[in-house]
Each structure stands twice: as C-alpha cells, then as structure tokens.
Amino acid sequence: MRDAPVLLVFDVDGTISPLPPRDGSGEPMWASPVSEAVLAALHDLTTPPNVLVGWVTSWSPGMVRSLVEKRLDGRLDGRHLHDDDDWAPGWRARAVTKEVARVDARAVVWFDDMAVRATLMRTLERAGLSPAALVFRPDEYVGITMRQARRAAKFVEYALASVY
Fold it and tell me: 63-92 burial, b for 16+ CB within 10 Å, e for fewer?
C-alpha cells in the first residue's frame, strides 16, 4: 500500500471558483479562482509523484482543460471524472469512487460545495473500498480557504507517510 496514491478531487463552481453575487440579470457573473495563496497551497499538495488530481464537475472536459491552462496556469491538472448519469443523485460520489478504484487510492480528499461525506462513504463501502477520506464542503461564495488547504496538506502528508 506504500506506493498507492492519494487522490485530490476538485469541483469548479463554488469550490475553485467562488460564486459571485448575481449581477441583477439573474445570471451569476464569472468569478476569478480562489486566491493565489490558496491555489499555490493546493498546487503544493500535488507535487509528490503519488498524488493525483481529478475534477468532478458538470463542466465539460474541454472547459476544465481551459480553466487549468488559462486561469490556473497549468496547476491542478488532472483527469475529468464522470459517471454514466452525470445528473442523477449521487453521481459525483460515484465518479469519485470509480477513480479511487481505478487508481487504487490509499486516501482521497474531495473539495466540492455540494459534497456529501456520508454519500461518498456509503458509495465507497458498497464498492468494497476503504481509503482514508477527507471531504470539504466550501462555502460556495468563498470557495476553498487557506485553512482548508492547510488541513488537507496535513491529511495528505499523514496519508503518504502511513503504511497500512
């Protein structure tokens, strides 16, 4: 299990990119990604060779690629995760679970303003998987905070150092 990876999973809207107040037109305005300090801290989490990144979002793979390349300066590059029915309840947890199984992850950290830890844990259990799991549900108007990034860093450090 020593070489098994840690999987970091991100959503976009409300997580990497906080939702701004509506502009009065009924449509949310595009927001910038979370602060540079938070992005740098998250990027630092991905530097060990056995840390993988996944994106679980309703955004298309091309939109995620554009976000990573143009807005995140190539940081947090990873696979686009999906489920057979990306709109059915629990699809995000199923997509995360499929990726945990695919890469045989020892641990998973999931950042998503719509994440439900209990759903992820049930889905992992039904699949016969038992990685260590840390789930963050950022405030959708704030996105991932530095405090959450630091907590994730401690979790990843512990997961990478553990032999189980």
Answer: ebeebbeeebeebbebbbbbbeeeeeeebb
Return d(Cα 92, Cα 112) in angstroms, integer: 9
Question: What digits encode the pLDDT tens for the residues 69-105?
Answer: 988 999 999 999 988 776 788 899 999 999 999 999 9
Question: How far apart are the C-alpha atoms of 71 and 95, rounded to whole Å?
Answer: 24
Average pLDDT over residues 42-64: 94
Q: pTM here?
A: 0.90
Nearest alpha-carbon partner for 51 in 1, 115, 3: 3
> Rounded mean pLDDT of the chain?
90
* Total number of residues shown for the chain: 164
- Letter string b/e over residues 24-55, b meaning 16 or more CB atoms within 10 A of that residue's CB: eeeeeeebebbeeebbebbbebbeeeebbbbb
Contact 80, 55 (CB under 8 A): yes
| Tokens coding 59 | 């955004």
Segments in 46-106 forming alpha helices (H): 61-66, 91-103
In the chain, DSSP finds a helix count (H) and a strand count (E) of 5, 5
d(CA 12, CA 80): 11
Q: Which DSSP letter does residue 88 get?
A: S
